[in-house]
Design a protein that fits this description.
Its main location: membrane. Keywords: Cell membrane, Membrane, Transmembrane, Transmembrane helix. Pfam families: LysE. By secondary structure, this protein is mainly alpha-helical. It has one domain. The chain is built from 9 helices and no strands. It has helices spanning 5-20, 24-36, 38-61, 65-69, 71-94, 112-124, 127-136, 148-181, 185-208. Helix 3 (38-61) runs antiparallel to helix 8, helix 5 (71-94) packs antiparallel against helix 6 and helix 5 (71-94) runs antiparallel to helix 9 (185-208). It is globular and about 60 Å long. It starts with a helix and ends with a helix.
Length: 211
């Protein structure tokens, strides 16, 4: 086996605990599901998972040393990510039924394409996720077993699978609840405002966080 079974078991348990703890990704997927329905929730999860795969690749290649060599790069990416989240939140809050939006999925006000790309960019522009992945995954790698890249790949697959199971479930359930509420015009408006508030709050939190 190319990976230490004890480390693998420990990694799986730790990842499950980390995934079921509400965080920015889960809240983002929740908001997308509420606005765009179950499919939008799943596609937002897919976007987040895609960026997770990129983070794993970055961790395996060691490219994140850039943040150590050029500290300002971390700050720049963090601020850009925060600004993007705040932008999404303001757009949601300002949304009106007659505003020019993309074709919505499941009767909601967020298209599947937009949900996926937003999930991808929101997670990708969060340097905390890069540094977390770099700090987290190597703890469960045993260099003496060789094929370090394969060990990273196995851990990455487990991480992404857990992302789909946990956040995907949140997105689908939120989408079903949101779909029911969207039949009521006033409730739909409250969904948009609540979702926008979540995004803006996440953006502000990310902007104010210190490394």
């Amino acid at each position: 086996m190319p990976i230490d079974p004890h480390l693998l078991a420990l990694f799986t348990v730790t990842t499950i605990i980390a995934m079921i703890t509400p965080g920015p990704d889960m809240l983002f997927v929740l908001g997308c599901g509420m606005r765009g329905g179950p499919r939008a929730g799943l596609l937002a999860t897919a976007g987040v998972a895609t960026s997770e795969a990129i983070h794993v690749a970055v961790a395996a290649a060691g490219l994140a040393a850039l943040f150590e060599a050029v500290p300002i790069a971390f700050t720049v990416v963090r601020i850009v990510g925060a600004a993007y989240l705040i932008y999404l939140g303001v757009q949601a809050i300002r949304n009106r039924d007659d505003s020019p939006l993309e074709v919505a999925v499941g009767g909601g006000s967020m298209s599947g394409r937009r949900a996926y790309l937003s999930g991808l960019m929101t997670n990708l522009l969060n340097p905390k996720m890069v540094t977390f992945t770099i700090a987290f995954l190597p703890q469960f790698i045993n260099p003496s077993l060789g094929q370090v890249w394969l060990q990273f790949a196995i851990l990455g697959v487990i991480l992404i699978a857990m992302e789909f199971v946990v956040d995907g479930a949140v997105g689908v359930l939120a989408g079903r609840i949101g779909g029911w509420l969207r039949h009521r015009r006033a409730a739909r408006r409250r969904i948009d405002v609540a979702t926008g508030g979540i995004f803006v709050g996440l953006g502000v939190k990310l902007a104010l966080e210190q490394r």
